[in-house]
From TrEMBL:
Skewed-composition ranges (Basic and acidic residues): 302-317
One Pfam family recorded for the sequence: AIG1
Region (Disordered): 282-339
MF GO annotations: GTP binding
Key word Nucleotide-binding present: yes
Record family assignment: Belongs to the TRAFAC class TrmE-Era-EngA-EngB-Septin-like GTPase superfamily. AIG1/Toc34/Toc159-like paraseptin GTPase family. IAN subfamily.
Domain AIG1-type G, chain residue ranges per copy: 28-231
Keyword set includes GTP-binding: yes
Keywords noted in UniProt: GTP-binding, Nucleotide-binding
Organism per entry: Mola mola (Ocean sunfish)
Name this polypeptide is given: AIG1-type G domain-containing protein
Protein backbone atom coordinates (compact mmCIF):
# COMPACT_ATOMS: atom_id res chain seq x y z
CA UNK A 1 0.00 0.00 0.00
CA UNK A 2 2.83 2.36 0.81
CA UNK A 3 4.50 1.91 -2.61
CA UNK A 4 1.17 2.33 -4.39
CA UNK A 5 0.28 5.54 -2.60
CA UNK A 6 3.72 6.98 -3.19
CA UNK A 7 3.48 6.10 -6.87
CA UNK A 8 0.17 7.98 -7.04
CA UNK A 9 1.76 11.17 -5.69
CA UNK A 10 1.95 13.74 -8.47
CA UNK A 11 3.42 17.17 -7.75
CA UNK A 12 3.50 20.36 -9.73
CA UNK A 13 4.87 23.87 -9.28
CA UNK A 14 2.65 26.50 -7.68
CA UNK A 15 1.62 29.32 -10.01
CA UNK A 16 1.30 32.94 -8.90
CA UNK A 17 -1.77 33.42 -6.73
CA UNK A 18 -3.24 36.13 -8.94
CA UNK A 19 -3.56 33.55 -11.75
CA UNK A 20 -4.70 30.68 -9.56
CA UNK A 21 -7.67 32.12 -7.73
CA UNK A 22 -8.90 34.82 -10.09
CA UNK A 23 -9.29 32.38 -12.98
CA UNK A 24 -12.19 29.89 -12.36
CA UNK A 25 -10.39 27.31 -14.47
CA UNK A 26 -7.60 27.23 -11.87
CA UNK A 27 -9.90 26.14 -9.05
CA UNK A 28 -8.45 22.65 -9.43
CA UNK A 29 -4.91 23.95 -8.79
CA UNK A 30 -2.75 21.37 -7.04
CA UNK A 31 -2.28 21.83 -3.30
CA UNK A 32 0.43 20.16 -1.22
CA UNK A 33 -0.49 19.43 2.39
CA UNK A 34 1.93 18.25 5.08
CA UNK A 35 0.45 16.59 8.18
CA UNK A 36 2.56 16.76 11.35
CA UNK A 37 1.83 16.08 14.99
CA UNK A 38 2.37 13.84 18.01
CA UNK A 39 1.14 10.28 18.37
CA UNK A 40 -2.51 9.46 19.01
CA UNK A 41 -3.82 12.78 17.73
CA UNK A 42 -5.87 11.52 14.76
CA UNK A 43 -3.30 12.71 12.24
CA UNK A 44 -3.59 9.75 9.83
CA UNK A 45 -7.38 9.80 10.15
CA UNK A 46 -7.26 13.46 9.12
CA UNK A 47 -5.31 12.48 6.01
CA UNK A 48 -7.96 9.89 5.12
CA UNK A 49 -10.70 12.49 5.59
CA UNK A 50 -8.87 14.90 3.30
CA UNK A 51 -8.45 12.30 0.55
CA UNK A 52 -12.01 10.92 0.97
CA UNK A 53 -10.91 7.47 -0.23
CA UNK A 54 -11.18 5.28 2.84
CA UNK A 55 -8.16 3.88 4.69
CA UNK A 56 -5.28 5.22 2.64
CA UNK A 57 -3.09 5.99 5.67
CA UNK A 58 -2.53 3.47 8.43
CA UNK A 59 -4.30 4.64 11.58
CA UNK A 60 -2.93 2.11 14.07
CA UNK A 61 0.10 4.31 14.77
CA UNK A 62 3.81 3.77 14.37
CA UNK A 63 3.70 3.90 10.57
CA UNK A 64 6.39 5.49 8.46
CA UNK A 65 5.93 8.65 6.39
CA UNK A 66 3.45 8.05 3.56
CA UNK A 67 2.24 10.15 0.62
CA UNK A 68 -0.98 10.00 -1.42
CA UNK A 69 -3.02 12.25 -3.71
CA UNK A 70 -6.65 12.64 -4.74
CA UNK A 71 -9.22 15.08 -6.08
CA UNK A 72 -11.54 16.35 -3.37
CA UNK A 73 -13.88 19.35 -3.06
CA UNK A 74 -12.95 20.31 -6.63
CA UNK A 75 -9.26 20.53 -5.79
CA UNK A 76 -6.43 18.14 -6.57
CA UNK A 77 -4.41 17.66 -3.39
CA UNK A 78 -1.32 15.74 -2.36
CA UNK A 79 -1.03 14.75 1.28
CA UNK A 80 2.09 13.59 3.10
CA UNK A 81 1.41 11.94 6.45
CA UNK A 82 4.59 12.16 8.50
CA UNK A 83 5.66 9.70 11.13
CA UNK A 84 4.15 10.65 14.48
CA UNK A 85 6.30 12.51 16.97
CA UNK A 86 7.35 11.46 20.43
CA UNK A 87 6.84 13.51 23.58
CA UNK A 88 10.45 14.33 24.37
CA UNK A 89 10.71 18.04 25.13
CA UNK A 90 14.47 18.24 25.71
CA UNK A 91 15.78 16.86 22.41
CA UNK A 92 14.55 15.45 19.10
CA UNK A 93 15.67 11.90 18.25
CA UNK A 94 17.72 11.57 15.10
CA UNK A 95 15.15 9.21 13.52
CA UNK A 96 12.42 11.84 13.85
CA UNK A 97 14.61 14.48 12.21
CA UNK A 98 15.35 12.16 9.28
CA UNK A 99 11.69 11.27 8.79
CA UNK A 100 10.60 14.90 8.90
CA UNK A 101 13.17 15.97 6.32
CA UNK A 102 12.31 12.97 4.17
CA UNK A 103 8.65 14.00 4.29
CA UNK A 104 9.63 17.42 2.98
CA UNK A 105 11.60 15.84 0.13
CA UNK A 106 8.51 13.93 -1.05
CA UNK A 107 7.08 17.22 -2.32
CA UNK A 108 10.04 17.68 -4.61
CA UNK A 109 10.91 21.29 -5.44
CA UNK A 110 7.37 22.50 -4.80
CA UNK A 111 7.18 22.02 -1.05
CA UNK A 112 3.97 22.11 1.03
CA UNK A 113 1.54 24.97 0.66
CA UNK A 114 0.26 24.38 4.16
CA UNK A 115 1.57 22.54 7.21
CA UNK A 116 -1.32 21.15 9.26
CA UNK A 117 -0.32 20.74 12.89
CA UNK A 118 -2.78 18.15 14.21
CA UNK A 119 -3.78 18.47 17.89
CA UNK A 120 -6.84 16.94 19.60
CA UNK A 121 -9.40 19.08 21.42
CA UNK A 122 -8.11 17.99 24.82
CA UNK A 123 -5.94 19.65 27.44
CA UNK A 124 -2.75 20.96 25.89
CA UNK A 125 0.06 21.12 28.45
CA UNK A 126 3.19 23.22 28.44
CA UNK A 127 5.29 20.06 28.15
CA UNK A 128 3.43 19.14 24.95
CA UNK A 129 3.94 22.65 23.63
CA UNK A 130 7.70 22.46 24.13
CA UNK A 131 7.82 19.03 22.45
CA UNK A 132 5.93 20.41 19.43
CA UNK A 133 8.12 23.50 19.16
CA UNK A 134 11.27 21.37 19.30
CA UNK A 135 10.13 19.49 16.19
CA UNK A 136 9.00 22.57 14.34
CA UNK A 137 12.39 24.20 14.91
CA UNK A 138 13.87 21.63 12.55
CA UNK A 139 12.01 23.39 9.74
CA UNK A 140 13.21 26.83 10.95
CA UNK A 141 11.01 29.51 12.48
CA UNK A 142 9.62 30.54 9.06
CA UNK A 143 7.49 27.40 8.96
CA UNK A 144 4.98 29.05 11.31
CA UNK A 145 3.96 31.39 8.49
CA UNK A 146 2.63 28.36 6.62
CA UNK A 147 1.26 26.44 9.62
CA UNK A 148 -2.36 25.98 10.60
CA UNK A 149 -3.58 24.13 13.69
CA UNK A 150 -6.10 21.41 12.87
CA UNK A 151 -8.08 20.33 15.93
CA UNK A 152 -9.35 16.75 15.85
CA UNK A 153 -12.03 15.10 18.01
CA UNK A 154 -14.50 17.77 16.95
CA UNK A 155 -17.32 15.70 18.44
CA UNK A 156 -16.09 16.72 21.90
CA UNK A 157 -17.30 20.27 21.31
CA UNK A 158 -20.88 19.07 21.00
CA UNK A 159 -20.56 17.01 24.14
CA UNK A 160 -19.17 19.93 26.10
CA UNK A 161 -21.59 22.40 24.58
CA UNK A 162 -18.88 24.94 23.74
CA UNK A 163 -17.27 26.42 20.66
CA UNK A 164 -13.68 26.08 19.50
CA UNK A 165 -13.11 29.75 20.34
CA UNK A 166 -14.16 29.09 23.93
CA UNK A 167 -11.87 26.05 24.02
CA UNK A 168 -8.90 28.20 22.92
CA UNK A 169 -9.75 30.92 25.41
CA UNK A 170 -9.96 28.45 28.29
CA UNK A 171 -7.11 26.24 27.06
CA UNK A 172 -4.42 27.93 29.12
CA UNK A 173 -1.21 29.81 28.24
CA UNK A 174 0.40 26.85 26.42
CA UNK A 175 -2.38 26.62 23.84
CA UNK A 176 -2.64 30.39 23.45
CA UNK A 177 1.09 30.66 22.82
CA UNK A 178 0.86 27.97 20.15
CA UNK A 179 -2.04 29.79 18.52
CA UNK A 180 -0.06 33.04 18.52
CA UNK A 181 2.74 31.34 16.60
CA UNK A 182 0.21 30.20 14.00
CA UNK A 183 -1.44 33.65 13.93
CA UNK A 184 -4.64 32.03 15.20
CA UNK A 185 -5.17 30.01 12.04
CA UNK A 186 -7.11 26.87 12.91
CA UNK A 187 -9.81 24.46 11.79
CA UNK A 188 -11.79 21.63 13.39
CA UNK A 189 -12.24 18.09 12.03
CA UNK A 190 -14.56 15.36 13.17
CA UNK A 191 -13.00 12.27 11.63
CA UNK A 192 -15.64 9.99 13.20
CA UNK A 193 -18.57 11.35 11.26
CA UNK A 194 -20.02 8.89 8.77
CA UNK A 195 -22.07 11.49 6.92
CA UNK A 196 -20.47 12.02 3.51
CA UNK A 197 -21.82 15.55 3.14
CA UNK A 198 -20.41 16.53 6.53
CA UNK A 199 -16.96 15.29 5.58
CA UNK A 200 -16.97 17.21 2.30
CA UNK A 201 -18.16 20.36 4.06
CA UNK A 202 -15.35 20.39 6.63
CA UNK A 203 -12.77 19.65 3.91
CA UNK A 204 -14.14 22.45 1.71
CA UNK A 205 -14.01 24.90 4.62
CA UNK A 206 -10.45 23.87 5.39
CA UNK A 207 -9.28 24.40 1.80
CA UNK A 208 -10.95 27.83 1.81
CA UNK A 209 -8.93 28.78 4.88
CA UNK A 210 -5.81 27.46 3.19
CA UNK A 211 -6.48 29.76 0.24
CA UNK A 212 -6.77 32.73 2.60
CA UNK A 213 -3.49 31.79 4.24
CA UNK A 214 -1.84 31.53 0.83
CA UNK A 215 -3.01 35.03 0.02
CA UNK A 216 -1.34 36.26 3.20
CA UNK A 217 1.89 34.54 2.14
CA UNK A 218 1.78 35.94 -1.37
CA UNK A 219 0.87 32.57 -2.89
CA UNK A 220 4.19 30.92 -2.08
CA UNK A 221 4.64 27.44 -0.71
CA UNK A 222 7.00 26.59 2.13
CA UNK A 223 10.45 25.59 0.94
CA UNK A 224 13.11 24.79 3.51
CA UNK A 225 15.91 25.36 0.99
CA UNK A 226 14.39 28.62 -0.23
CA UNK A 227 14.13 30.05 3.27
CA UNK A 228 17.63 28.84 4.08
CA UNK A 229 18.95 30.70 1.03
CA UNK A 230 16.96 33.77 2.02
CA UNK A 231 18.31 33.62 5.57
CA UNK A 232 21.85 33.23 4.24
CA UNK A 233 21.33 36.25 1.98
CA UNK A 234 19.88 38.28 4.86
CA UNK A 235 22.81 37.27 7.07
CA UNK A 236 25.28 38.26 4.35
CA UNK A 237 23.66 41.67 3.87
CA UNK A 238 23.48 42.22 7.61
CA UNK A 239 27.18 41.38 7.93
CA UNK A 240 28.04 43.84 5.12
CA UNK A 241 25.96 46.54 6.79
CA UNK A 242 27.61 45.98 10.15
CA UNK A 243 31.08 46.01 8.55
CA UNK A 244 30.33 49.27 6.75
CA UNK A 245 28.96 50.87 9.90
CA UNK A 246 32.00 49.69 11.87
CA UNK A 247 34.32 51.15 9.23
CA UNK A 248 32.47 54.46 9.31
CA UNK A 249 32.65 54.45 13.09
CA UNK A 250 36.41 53.82 12.97
CA UNK A 251 36.91 56.68 10.49
CA UNK A 252 34.80 58.90 12.67
CA UNK A 253 36.87 57.88 15.67
CA UNK A 254 40.12 58.76 13.88
CA UNK A 255 38.64 62.07 12.80
CA UNK A 256 37.60 62.75 16.36
CA UNK A 257 41.08 61.93 17.64
CA UNK A 258 42.60 64.27 15.04
CA UNK A 259 40.21 67.01 16.03
CA UNK A 260 41.05 66.48 19.68
CA UNK A 261 44.79 66.63 18.90
CA UNK A 262 44.31 69.82 16.87
CA UNK A 263 42.32 71.37 19.71
CA UNK A 264 45.04 70.38 22.18
CA UNK A 265 47.69 72.05 20.02
CA UNK A 266 45.58 75.17 19.72
CA UNK A 267 45.12 75.31 23.49
CA UNK A 268 48.86 74.82 23.98
CA UNK A 269 49.60 77.68 21.58
CA UNK A 270 47.13 79.92 23.37
CA UNK A 271 48.68 79.00 26.70
CA UNK A 272 52.18 79.85 25.39
CA UNK A 273 50.94 83.20 24.09
CA UNK A 274 49.32 83.97 27.41
CA UNK A 275 52.57 83.03 29.18
CA UNK A 276 54.56 85.30 26.88
CA UNK A 277 52.18 88.19 27.45
CA UNK A 278 52.34 87.63 31.20
CA UNK A 279 56.13 87.62 31.07
CA UNK A 280 56.12 90.87 29.09
CA UNK A 281 53.78 92.45 31.61
CA UNK A 282 55.95 91.27 34.46
CA UNK A 283 59.05 92.69 32.78
CA UNK A 284 57.27 95.98 32.18
CA UNK A 285 56.19 96.13 35.80
CA UNK A 286 59.71 95.35 36.98
CA UNK A 287 61.18 98.01 34.76
CA UNK A 288 58.57 100.47 35.92
CA UNK A 289 59.36 99.72 39.55
CA UNK A 290 63.06 100.14 38.84
CA UNK A 291 62.43 103.45 37.12
CA UNK A 292 60.38 104.66 40.06
CA UNK A 293 63.07 103.50 42.46
CA UNK A 294 65.74 105.31 40.42
CA UNK A 295 63.63 108.44 40.34
CA UNK A 296 63.19 108.26 44.10
CA UNK A 297 66.87 107.73 44.69
CA UNK A 298 67.77 110.59 42.38
CA UNK A 299 65.38 112.93 44.12
CA UNK A 300 66.78 111.98 47.52
CA UNK A 301 70.31 112.52 46.27
CA UNK A 302 69.28 115.86 44.84
CA UNK A 303 67.79 116.94 48.13
CA UNK A 304 70.90 115.84 50.03
CA UNK A 305 73.10 117.75 47.62
CA UNK A 306 70.88 120.75 48.01
CA UNK A 307 71.25 120.64 51.77
CA UNK A 308 74.98 120.26 51.47
CA UNK A 309 75.14 123.29 49.15
CA UNK A 310 73.01 125.26 51.60
CA UNK A 311 75.25 124.40 54.53
CA UNK A 312 78.31 125.43 52.63
CA UNK A 313 76.61 128.72 51.74
CA UNK A 314 75.70 129.33 55.34
CA UNK A 315 79.29 128.82 56.39
CA UNK A 316 80.44 131.31 53.88
CA UNK A 317 77.95 133.95 55.03
CA UNK A 318 78.58 133.30 58.70
CA UNK A 319 75.08 132.07 59.40
CA UNK A 320 74.61 128.74 61.01
CA UNK A 321 71.54 126.92 61.96
CA UNK A 322 70.81 126.52 65.60
CA UNK A 323 71.94 123.26 67.06
CA UNK A 324 70.14 121.33 69.67
CA UNK A 325 71.94 119.35 72.29
CA UNK A 326 71.26 115.79 72.95
CA UNK A 327 69.63 116.50 76.26
CA UNK A 328 66.90 118.35 74.63
CA UNK A 329 67.62 121.66 76.41
CA UNK A 330 67.83 124.67 74.23
CA UNK A 331 70.95 126.77 74.50
CA UNK A 332 70.44 130.47 74.41
CA UNK A 333 73.18 132.23 72.61
CA UNK A 334 73.44 135.76 71.36
CA UNK A 335 74.41 136.49 67.86
CA UNK A 336 77.87 137.62 67.28
CA UNK A 337 78.88 140.05 64.77
CA UNK A 338 81.84 139.28 62.73
CA UNK A 339 84.37 141.92 62.30
Amino acid sequence: MRDETQAQLHLCAFSPLSQVFKDPRNRSQHLNILLVGPRRTGKSSTGNTLLGRGQVFETRGGGATTAASATTAGRHISVVDTQAWGLSEDFVPREEKIELLRAMSLFGLGGPHVVLLVIPLTDFTDSERRAVERRMEILTSTVWRHTMVLFTCGDLLRRRGCTVEEHIQLGGPALRRLMEKCRYRYHVFNNKTAVLGEQEKQVRELLSKVENMLQENGGWHFSLHMYQRMEEEWSRRELELRTRLAAETDVGGVRTKQEQSFKAEEEEKKCCLRTREDNKMNRWEDEEEKAIELMTLSSEESSERGEERKESTDRKTGMSAPSWPKGGQRLVCSPRRLA
